[in-house]
Design goal:
Length: 209
C-alpha cells in the first residue's frame, strides 16, 4: 500500500510502502472502544476511601447498659447512626485496572491506525529535525503540511528539540512510537508519522511478516 511521503516543506518527496496488516485492516469499533475504556480505567488512581466503624477512633466502651434505660440497645457510639461514626458501604482503596489480551490490544491499535489513514487524517513525513528549540519553525512545518487542527506527532524516539518545539503549541502533542495508544490516536484530529516511526511501529506492535 503506497502513500505519499512529504518533506518538512510540505512537498511530496517520494512514496512509502505500508503493510496492509497494520495500516489497511478493517477497523473493529468495539475493540477500539474497549481499549479506550481500559486505558481510562487504568489511569484511575482508586485512592478514595472513607473510614468504617472499625477505623474511626473511640467507641471502645458500650455507651450504656443493655436493658432498663428505655432506649434502643447500642454497642458503640461509633456506629453509623451516631455523629462521628463510621460510614456504611463507603468507597475503599481499590484498583480499576482492566485486562485485555495482547491480540485484542494489537487489533485495537491497528484499527485506529487504519481508520486514521482511510479517513485521510494521517500524513507521513520523511524527517523532522531542528537545530534548537524553535516553536515557530514547528508551527511553520504544520502550516506547510496544511494541518490546522489538533495533531499528534509520532516520533521514532526521544528528540528533545522536536518535543520542546511542539510543547508550547496548543493542541499539538508528540509521542514516541513505542508509547502509542488507541486513546491518543482517536483523541487528535490529525496524525503526523515520521518515516522512521513506521519501522518502530512494525517492530513494536505488528506480528512478524
Amino acid at each position: 500500500m503506497l502513500v505519499p511521503l512529504h518533506s518538512m516543506a510540505g512537498e511530496t518527496v517520494g512514496e512509502l510502502d505500508l503493510r496492509e496488516d497494520v495500516f489497511g485492516v478493517q477497523p473493529n469499533l468495539s475493540v477500539m472502544h474497549q481499549a479506550v475504556l481500559r486505558q481510562q480505567a487504568n489511569a484511575r488512581l482508586g485512592t478514595h476511601a472513607v473510614k468504617n466503624r472499625a477505623l474511626v477512633s473511640g467507641g471502645g466502651k458500650k455507651p450504656y447498659k443493655q436493658k432498663g434505660t428505655g432506649r434502643a440497645r447500642q454497642g458503640s457510639i461509633r456506629a453509623p447512626q451516631y455523629k462521628g461514626g463510621g460510614v456504611v458501604f463507603g468507597p475503599q482503596v481499590r484498583s480499576y485496572a482492566q485486562k485485555m489480551n495482547r491480540k485484542m490490544r494489537r487489533l485495537a491499535l491497528m484499527s485506529a491506525l487504519s481508520s486514521k489513514l482511510s479517513d485521510q487524517q494521517m500524513t507521513f513525513v520523511d524527517k523532522l529535525a531542528f537545530d534548537g528549540v524553535k516553536t515557530r519553525a514547528m508551527a511553520d512545518v504544520l502550516k506547510q503540511l496544511k494541518i490546522d487542527s489538533n495533531v499528534l506527532i509520532i516520533l521514532p524516539g526521544a528528540d528533545e528539540f522536536v518535543e520542546r518545539s511542539a510543547a508550547n503549541l496548543p493542541f499539538v502533542k508528540t509521542i514516541q512510537a513505542t508509547c502509542l495508544s488507541v486513546r491518543d490516536l482517536l483523541m487528535y484530529d490529525y496524525v503526523v508519522v515520521l518515516a522512521e516511526s513506521v519501522d518502530v511501529i512494525y517492530k513494536t506492535y505488528a506480528a512478524a511478516a
